[in-house]
Write a structure and sequence with these properties.
Length: 126
């Protein structure tokens, strides 16, 4: 895959602040490697959205704990635990398509082109 010139894509306006922060943190490198193009925008937005949901649920668990008291008086698992686990599952599956884990990167073949010299930009060689 060739190096992509130009600026990385901007995040969709509908992403929340946490999702946009992840987009801004990773999109430049993914774009540079040719792993984030206009065609991938919706998929990567899904990665960022799942991350935001995971963080929100994790924060809620940290604040309130992983269990709660049911109306019956028994301690039960907080619904936020299930929300967090499902969000992590969605995030990790979608993120693998972009090589966002060491094991996912082993399956990617990203070839970056070396910067071209002045002559190479104007004349074909080889």
């Amino acid at each position: 895959m060739p190096t992509r010139p130009g600026r990385p894509l901007q995040p969709p306006a509908w992403l929340d602040a946490t999702a946009k922060a992840l987009w801004k943190d990773l999109s430049g490198e993914l774009h540079r490697c040719g792993l984030l193009t206009k065609c991938d925008r919706a998929s990567f937005a899904g990665v960022c959205e799942a991350w935001s949901e995971y963080r929100r649920a994790s924060d809620k668990i940290e604040q309130d704990g992983p269990t709660m008291t049911a109306p019956s008086g028994y301690e039960v698992q907080s619904p936020w635990v299930s929300i967090r686990n499902k969000a992590w599952s969605r995030f990790s599956k979608a993120a693998a398509a972009f090589g966002l884990s060491p094991s996912a990167r082993t399956g990617l073949q990203v070839e970056l082109e070396a910067p071209k010299s002045g002559k190479e930009r104007f004349f074909k060689t080889g």
